[in-house]
């Protein structure tokens, strides 16, 4: 179960700044309490639960970085060509037959171990071969084109820290060190609902004034990108008693209960009341647009005292995406045991005008294009509504406008967050 306390998000101001939400999550939430060992093939997307320590040097021996000739640099003429006798041929995967002395060279290939006595490798295209001799030019520094044992990692060094999310390069590093399994945190277990009498399942008949549920599919896909184990619990109607009971049941056996819709101030927005009747809702408005009504809280467990974190997201799909990316993402990573991963907005040039309110962070959907001067320009999507799903499918990311910004003019420098950065 999630390791948290009733005051885990405590914040008394009416609107919680995005940075404060992320800080509180980092301070008050602990990772899930389970671990398991997985094979390297199952490791991508998981979170390392203990430091990965190098059991050997990487590379394990001095080797050649190029195809060429290995030799002793102290036997070279520093001012003119040097003629050397070729005494060995060393292919990758094979050891040298003998050491190399002054006046000698060994034909060597990329990755092959350096012969004893040799300290430098000349690239083959810089050399001339005449019979059993090679002529090398002057001027190459000692140690050139040689990879030293342990220059990547020394035996006993920390190769990866606990909390590192594992992607293909991390798994490749583990494989290079000869490891076959890694200790990882178990997956975060998430119970997922949509709420609202107006929401129906795709594929079913669509009554008048009803909408097909897209949020649950959006969230399930986003959660899967972060390695969560999702239990899809369907659609809940706007009945406070049904909501409370379903949320309480979902808290058992899950680390996070997530809903969309029903957390605003409308008369039919019953999720807030349902959570408060069985647990504690500790904040429900964040200074972010789109997506201000974001609720976070705690639903106690039935017996053990441990419970689940609760997140209630807005009903509009664009607001769901933005609040997941900027508010839920750090919570999910923290529960998963991952080290903090700051989102760094890349610079772009605005190709639009935009006016906003001071004191909240806003995210504008934009597409990137090359301007005539070669600069990268961000073009705002024509429709701004939080329910316009095509504004996500037809753009490249979000322009991030900070709390102190009140106006954006064409040509102004802005921060850009790509969808790729938000989904990893």
Structure characterization notes:
The protein folds into 3 domains: 18-34 and 187-335, Molybdenum Cofactor Biosythetic Enzyme, Chain A (3-Layer(aba) Sandwich); 63-147, Molybdopterin biosynthesis moea protein, domain 3 (Molybdopterin biosynthesis moeA protein, domain 3, Beta Complex); 346-422, Beta-clip (Beta Barrel), CATH 2.40.340.10. It has helices at 18-28, 168-176, 215-225, 240-251, 271-278, 317-335, 390-393, 419-422, and strands at 35-39, 52-53, 63-64, 68-71, 82-90, 104-108, 120-123, 128-130, 133-136, 146-147, 158-160, 181-185, 189-195, 199-200, 211-212, 229-236, 256-260, 280-283, 288-289, 295-299, 308-313, 346-350, 354-355, 361-370, 376-380, 397-401, 407-408, 413-418. The protein is elongated. The protein contains 8 helices and 28 strands. β24 (361-370) and β25 form a beta hairpin. α3 (215-225) packs parallel to α6 (317-335) and α4 packs across α5.
Describe this protein with a few key phrases:
Molybdenum Cofactor Biosythetic Enzyme, Chain A, 29% strand, 8 helices, Beta-clip, 424 residues, Molybdopterin biosynthesis moeA protein, domain 3, 3 domains, alpha/beta, elongated, six-stranded mixed beta sheet, 18% helix
């Amino acid at each position: 179960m999630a390791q948290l306390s009733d005051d885990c998000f405590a914040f008394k101001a009416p609107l919680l700044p995005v940075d404060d939400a992320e800080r509180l999550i980092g301070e008050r939430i602990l990772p899930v309490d389970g671990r398991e060992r997985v094979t390297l093939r199952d490791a991508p997307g998981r979170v390392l639960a203990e430091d990965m320590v190098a059991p050997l040097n990487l590379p394990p021996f001095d080797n050649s970085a190029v195809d060429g000739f290995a030799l002793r640099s102290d036997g070279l003429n520093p001012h003119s060509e040097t003629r050397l006798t070729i005494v060995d041929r060393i292919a990758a995967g094979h050891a040298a037959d003998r050491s190399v002395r002054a006046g000698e060279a060994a034909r060597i290939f990329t990755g092959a171990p350096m012969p004893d006595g040799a300290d430098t490798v000349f690239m083959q295209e810089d050399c001339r071969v005449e019979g059993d001799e090679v002529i090398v030019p002057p001027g190459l520094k000692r140690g050139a084109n040689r990879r030293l044992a342990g220059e990547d990692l020394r035996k006993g060094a920390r190769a990866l820290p606990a909390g590192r999310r594992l992607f293909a390069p991390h798994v490749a590093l583990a494989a290079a060190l000869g490891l076959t399994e890694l200790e990882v945190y178990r997956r975060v277990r998430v119970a997922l609902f949509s709420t609202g009498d107006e929401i129906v399942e795709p594929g079913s008949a669509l009554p008048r004034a009803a909408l097909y549920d897209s949020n649950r599919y959006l969230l399930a896909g986003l959660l899967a990108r972060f390695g969560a184990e999702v239990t899809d619990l369907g659609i809940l109607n706007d009945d406070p008693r049904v909501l409370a009971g379903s949320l309480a049941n979902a808290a058992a056996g899950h680390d996070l209960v997530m809903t969309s819709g029903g957390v605003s101030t409308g008369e039919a927005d019953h999720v807030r009341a349902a959570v408060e009747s069985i647990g504690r809702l500790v904040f429900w408005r964040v200074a972010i647009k789109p997506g201000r009504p974001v609720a976070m809280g705690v639903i106690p467990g039935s017996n053990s005292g441990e419970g689940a974190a609760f997140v209630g997201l807005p009903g509009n799909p664009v607001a769901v995406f933005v609040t997941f990316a900027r508010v839920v993402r750090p919570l999910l990573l923290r529960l998963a045991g991952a080290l903090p991963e700051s989102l760094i907005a890349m610079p772009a040039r605005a190709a639009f005008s935009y006016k906003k309110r001071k004191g909240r962070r806003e995210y504008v959907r934009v597409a990137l294009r090359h301007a005539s001067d070669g600069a990268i320009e961000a073009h705002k999507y024509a429709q701004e509504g939080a329910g316009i799903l095509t504004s996500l499918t037809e753009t490249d990311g979000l322009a991030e406008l900070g709390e102190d910004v009140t106006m954006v003019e064409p040509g102004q420098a802005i921060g850009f967050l790509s969808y790729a950065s938000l989904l990893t």
